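Page 42, continued from yesterday. The earlier attempt failed because a stray header line got pasted into the input along with the sequence. Redoing it now with the clean sequence only.
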Amino acid sequence: MSHQPLAGKVALVTGGSRGIGAATALRLADDGADVAITYVSSAEQAKSVVSRIEQHGVRGEAFASDQADPQQAASLVDKVMAAFGRLDILVNNAGIFVTGPIDAAETDLEAMDRQYAVNVAGVVAVTRAAAKVMGEGGRIVSLSSTAADRAVFPNLGDYSATKAAITAYTRAWARDLGRRGITVNAVQTSSISTDMNPDVGSFADVQRSMNALGRFGRPEEMAAAIAFLAGPEAGFVTGATLNVDGGFSA
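This time it went through. Structure tokens are written below.
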């Protein structure tokens, strides 16, 4: 195996301007892939990530694309194809986290609807568009959460349901695309230190106490798992859900 197992491949990482998405984009670039990322509002951060991607000697490009609007998915994939000429790896990373109880009048229903649009409808739309242009050996990896399996805190219903949908889609898409030699897998995480889930404060302390390793994970540790599933050595892994959660699910 060469030091760059993804040389000659093109990857698209949604939500790649920060956190797990940025770490994944940089890891795939280090493995030799040209990498496209998407962003919504953080143009400067996206530009910085592209610059760091290019430091690995590969091509990088950032595209503004709001995953809450599924209509943008097809044009996003068209833009990636126009810029790079192919698409081998899709990492469905973009997602948001909104909480609220089912029975509270003050629950922000508009925010819940946007969460569903981003976490489910947008992922489905991008995957549909990408699957049409991928060839044999294609890789689709979606970010899910251990909340798909366990609602260990109140107020997680809507978020948990969005992630459970992605985990279920993963299994079904693996069946749909297996005949074409395209693998589809999900990575479920719990406590990774990002802007969305910082590793400081009382809630962070509770999370640490609930996993076997007693610490938060780093975005780079998630990226390593995603890179494995995106690489040639995972050719016989499909329809799988890999927990990268510090033993939270143990």
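Notes: The chain has one domain: 10-244.
Reminder to self: strip header lines before submitting.
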